[in-house]
């Protein structure tokens, strides 16, 4: 079962990304493509600061600020220059590739022989168990913060912006500012995922963000399916389901790997399993 | 009919649990491959053939468990973790990222690398200049690239005083960027003008190649990295139309349309790593093992293309099979 624990840890580390996509989906009803770049940005800032022996308490804030800036930039391009949200995300993601490469100075930075978040605190002797405790605490705090934020007036206004922009504007809310802040928040979360994953896998690679938006999207859609299935209205439960979605997404892949299907069929079988999960609510035995 | 859906959930759970209780009696080799690629395929075959030549056959006295990440880093991490948790006897890693990921995840299971650069080039050395103690296999530094590049002068005479050579390199691969720096230094020494353009995904290959060809280059140097491997046919097609010969440092690319190469043979690379793994399986100890340099380098040329470009090939080059 040790192997499934690693899938769980990866799922936990990806949950910040899933929460980011969840928020951007709430605001725009489309996923934010900046994700691919800001995820790597978070990992790059982490690796550069760790290899330059920066203290741990500085790294996380720096990652959050970097991700937030990337998201805010997408928001500004979308709202002020009236560029389609998808394109704005693609543009920032493309530009971030060069930013990431310049920051790192190389395309791959291993983090071995450096202290990381997961060996700062020694709760258990087994590194995997230790990682589990650290990342669990991290995710609990994260979900508590985001849950609280989404329940404030600001959070409600932000969520409502996605539902009916004209209504929110008529209530005197500056929707442009809402979108910029929301995207900054979403991408700060995404960067946090990069921060966790890079320390967990032990290196940062320039291409690690390519297609990562799909991972977040998959998690969110699994979560949305469960939310609709159980008719959930609570914000807390929704967030926990997003976390569950991220874990399920990784678990399905590990299951496929464990089964040892032919390498060519890996993605197909994984997709098949995910399809099975999201179509569960629709599967009904027709009985008369 | 909620029961039905619950039943399915229960069945899947049972399925997962029942699958993960594998028995282990034969020594297990976990083979970690990063992507599907025609040029990289021979490494795995060479590795397996070397084991066979030493009396280790899959299913008979060893079990080879092969996993391919298909170019996804999270999947790669999961594959490595899968092998670590299965406590395989040794891991074989093909290409740089697989080797780096495996070295990060285990300090005890011996890792036999292939198609990977030296530990130093992977930035994996500690302050004392030592790499992880469980890293073995066969690696390559960049010296051979100098030879491959300077060979161009043996084949071609510049049209106008100076030889113009174009190349593309991948910014997302450390060894590709290092190779580009080296080739730039060589070009300066050899009085060759090098025009190098970066490429970040194989989708841009055609555009970047065309851009180089528009600058009237005499030859194209294909620096063997993942994006060149993936898009070589596009590069070849564009160069062929403009009658620009391609030189490289990888024999597999000569089969696919380059004129000549001096460098590692991917099959032999895997074979050499397989011989090391076989020694470990025989003795059950890593004593005396360490990462070795690629031993066998080949000078090969493509007869059909040499004829097309009227190139006199030096006698120490052999035609590619």
Descriptive notes:
- By secondary structure, chain A is mainly α.
- With 321 residues, chain B is α/β, with parallel strands linked by helices.
- Chain B folds into 2 domains: 147 residues, Rossmann fold; 142 residues, Response regulator (Rossmann fold, 3-Layer(aba) Sandwich).
- In chain B, the strands form 2 sheets. Chain B has a 7-stranded mixed β-sheet, with helices on both faces. Chain B has a 6-stranded parallel β-sheet with strand order 2-1-3-4-5-11, sandwiched between helices.
- The N and C termini of chain B lie far apart (63 Å).
- The chains are: A mainly alpha (288), B alpha/beta (321).
- The interface between A and B is large, with 50 and 47 residues.
Give the tally of structural domains of chain B: 2
Briefly note the structural class of the backbone of chain A.
Answer: mainly alpha
The percentage helix of chain A is: over 70%
Label the structural class of chain B. Answer: alpha/beta
Task: Tell me the CATH architecture of the largest domain in chain B.
Answer: 3-Layer(aba) Sandwich
In the sheet with the most strands of chain B, the strands line up as 7-6-8-9-10-12-13
Inertia-based shape of chain A: globular
Mean pLDDT of chain B: 86
Principal-axes shape call of chain B: elongated
Q: Which spans of chain B of ≥5 residues are poorly predicted at pLDDT below 50? A: none
Give the rounded overall mean pLDDT of chain A: 88
Characterize the largest beta sheet of chain A: strand count, sense, and whether it forms a barrel: 2 strands, antiparallel
Number of H- or I-type helical stretches of chain B: 11
Total number of beta strands of chain B = 13
Helix proportion of residues of chain B, in percent?
40-55%
Determine the N-to-C terminus distance of chain A: 42 Å
Q: Spans of chain A of 5+ residues with little confidence (pLDDT < 50)?
A: none
Order of the strands making up the biggest sheet of chain A: 1-2
How large is the count of helical segments of chain A?
12
């Amino acid at each position: 079962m040790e192997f499934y624990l690693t899938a769980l840890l990866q799922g936990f580390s990806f949950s910040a990304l899933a929460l980011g996509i969840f928020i951007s989906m709430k605001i725009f009803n489309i996923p934010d493509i900046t994700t691919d770049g800001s995820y790597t940005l978070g990992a790059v800032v982490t690796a550069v600061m760790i290899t330059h022996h920066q203290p741990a308490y500085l790294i996380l804030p720096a990652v959050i600020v970097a991700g937030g800036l990337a998201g805010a930039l997408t928001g500004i391009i979308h709202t002020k220059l009236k560029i389609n949200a998808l394109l704005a995300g693609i543009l920032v993601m493309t530009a971030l590739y060069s930013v990431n490469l310049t920051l790192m100075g190389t395309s791959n930075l291993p983090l071995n022989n450096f202290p990381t978040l997961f060996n700062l605190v020694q709760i258990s002797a087994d590194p995997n168990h230790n990682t589990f405790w650290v990342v669990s605490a991290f995710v609990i705090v994260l979900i508590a913060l985001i849950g609280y934020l989404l329940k404030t007036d600001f959070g409600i206004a932000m969520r409502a912006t996605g539902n009916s922009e004209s209504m929110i504007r008529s209530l005197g809310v500056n929707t442009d500012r809402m979108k910029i802040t929301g995207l900054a928040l979403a991408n700060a979360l995404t960067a946090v995922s990069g921060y966790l994953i890079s320390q967990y896998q032990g290196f940062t690679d320039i291409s690690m963000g390519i297609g990562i938006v799909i991972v977040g999207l998959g998690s969110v859609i699994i979560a949305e399916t469960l939310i609709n299935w159980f008719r959930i209205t609570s914000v807390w439960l929704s967030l926990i389901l997003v976390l569950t979605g991220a874990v399920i997404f990784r678990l399905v892949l590990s299951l496929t790997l464990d089964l040892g299907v032919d390498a060519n069929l890996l993605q197909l079988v994984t997709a098949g399993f995910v399809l099975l999960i999201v179509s569960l609510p629709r599967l009904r035995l027709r009985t008369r | 009919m909620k029961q039905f859906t619950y039943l399915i959930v229960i069945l899947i759970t049972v399925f997962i649990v029942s699958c993960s209780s594998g028995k282990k009696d034969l020594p297990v080799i976990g083979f970690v491959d990063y992507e599907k690629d025609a040029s990289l395929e021979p490494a795995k075959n060479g590795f397996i053939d070397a084991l066979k030549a030493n009396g280790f056959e899959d299913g008979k006295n060893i079990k080879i468990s092969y996993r391919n990440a298909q170019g996804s880093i999270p999947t790669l991490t999961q594959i490595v973790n899968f092998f670590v948790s299965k406590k395989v006897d040794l891991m074989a890693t093909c290409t740089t990222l697989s080797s780096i990921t495996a070295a990060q995840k285990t300090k005890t299971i011996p890792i036999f690398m292939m198609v990977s650069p030296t530990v130093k080039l992977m930035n994996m050395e500690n302050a004392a200049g030592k790499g992880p103690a469980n890293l073995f296999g066969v690696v390559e530094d960049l010296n051979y690239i100098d030879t491959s590049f300077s060979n161009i002068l043996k084949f071609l005479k510049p049209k106008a005083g100076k030889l113009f050579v174009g190349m593309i390199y991948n910014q997302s691969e450390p060894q590709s960027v290092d190779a580009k720096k080296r080739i730039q230094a060589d070009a300066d020494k050899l009085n060759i003008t090098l025009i190098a353009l970066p490429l970040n995904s194989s989708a841009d290959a055609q555009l970047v190649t065309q851009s180089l060809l528009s600058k009237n280059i005499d030859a194209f140097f294909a620096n063997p990295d993942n994006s060149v491997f993936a898009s070589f046919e596009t590069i070849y097609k564009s160069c062929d139309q403009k009658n620009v010969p391609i030189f490289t440092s990888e024999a597999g690319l000569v089969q696919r349309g380059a004129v000549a190469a001096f460098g590692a043979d991917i099959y032999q690379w895997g074979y050499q790593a397989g011989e090391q793994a076989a020694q470990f399986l025989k003795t059950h100890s890593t004593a005396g093992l360490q990462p070795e340099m690629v031993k066998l380098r080949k000078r090969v040329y493509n007869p059909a293309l040499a004829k097309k470009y009227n190139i006199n090939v030096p006698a120490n080059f052999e035609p590619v099979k």
